From TrEMBL:
<dbReference type="InterPro" id="IPR031100">
    <property type="entry name" value="LOG_fam"/>
</dbReference>
<dbReference type="Pfam" id="PF03641">
    <property type="entry name" value="Lysine_decarbox"/>
</dbReference>
<dbReference type="GO" id="GO:0005829">
    <property type="term" value="C:cytosol"/>
</dbReference>
<protein>
    <recommendedName>
        <fullName>AMP nucleosidase</fullName>
        <ecNumber>3.2.2.4</ecNumber>
    </recommendedName>
</protein>
<dbReference type="GO" id="GO:0008714">
    <property type="term" value="F:AMP nucleosidase activity"/>
</dbReference>
<dbReference type="InterPro" id="IPR052341">
    <property type="entry name" value="LOG_family_nucleotidases"/>
</dbReference>
Length: 285
């Protein structure tokens, strides 16, 4: 009995676009005669995976360069948090005990949304005092809702550029409304998206979040621990959440990480403290 292993353990671009295998056979001259760059079915073949990787890497690289963006601060966090204003409205309109409990939880977590929004505004205020693009730091997020929206919103409302690296999912994640036109990008491959989170990052600011936030955070920590990238501040907002969820001290005691690894992390409680860490690190005015 042969094992029933999947042919591909992730959603393929062909599946995503609902292309059938028969469409990429190109048995007809009409198909084979097309320019390679104008032949969508050919570009979706398994053999052209490397080309698609290159294109996803290159497109944002070119557009960001054209916009003069050299440095970013990448902000992670839960997609589920809403502003205090939205949470209060949820509480006022709750019609059942379940809805009221949901609203109260949203109100509890709204402090993180409001903090991320304030942080985006603080970074934008700094940029407004700089005349050269090479001295500016721009907010970059995953481009979706929650903490991502909040950080983008703070920068956008202050008149600064706001970047979103969105990802195509089976349940589509739509870009938030606070992204600068021309700086909202869509990725199919998580790996390339993560590269763009890091390529220009001069700091990481992580708010409480779920699997996605932890995935991104540990990727950065691993890159720094193994000295694959130059070290820069990794700022975790909300010490209680992070230290209750990740037992850093237990990891230290068991010798699976070193104190040097813990020195990568800065715990703060608010947006102003997060910005002060970055200011001190880079000696910003």
């Amino acid at each position: 009995m042969s094992p029933k292993l999947p042919e591909n353990n992730s959603q393929t671009i062909t599946d995503y676009l609902n292309h059938q295998k028969s469409l990429i056979a190109e048995d007809e001259s009409e198909d084979s005669y097309k320019f390679a760059f104008d032949d969508e079915d050919f570009l979706l073949r398994r053999e052209t995976l490397g080309v698609r990787f290159q294109l996803e890497l290159l497109k944002p690289e070119i557009l960001l360069h054209e916009q003069g963006i050299e440095h970013t601060i990448t902000v992670f966090g839960s997609t589920r948090f809403v502003s205090s204003q939205v949470a209060q409205e949820m509480e006022r309109s709750a019609k059942s005990p379940e809805a009221l409990a949901t609203a109260q939880k949203a109100l509890l977590h709204s402090k993180y949304y409001d903090s991320a929004r304030e942080f985006g505004s603080l970074v934008a205020s700094y940029n407004a005092s700089q005349f050269e693009a090479r001295n500016k730091l721009h907010i970059a997020t995953g481009g979706g809702p929650g903490i991502m929206e909040a950080a983008n919103r703070g920068a956008f409302e202050a008149g600064d550029k706001s970047i979103g690296f969105n990802i195509s999912l089976p349940r589509e994640q739509h870009p938030n409304q606070y992204l600068t036109p021309g700086l909202s990008f869509r990725f199919h491959y998580f790996a390339i998206r993560k590269m763009h989170f890091m390529l220009r990052a001069r700091a990481i600011v992580a708010y409480p979040g779920g699997f996605g936030s932890f995935d991104e955070l540990f990727e950065v920590l691993t890159l720094m621990q193994t000295k694959k990238v130059v070290r820069f501040p990794i700022i975790l907002v909300g010490r209680d959440f992070w230290c209750e969820t990740i037992r850093f001290e237990t990891m230290l005691q068991n010798g699976v990480i070193d104190q040097e690894d813990m020195n990568l992390i800065h715990f703060v409680e608010n947006a102003e403290s997060a910005w002060h860490v970055i200011q001190d690190w880079y000696q910003l005015a």
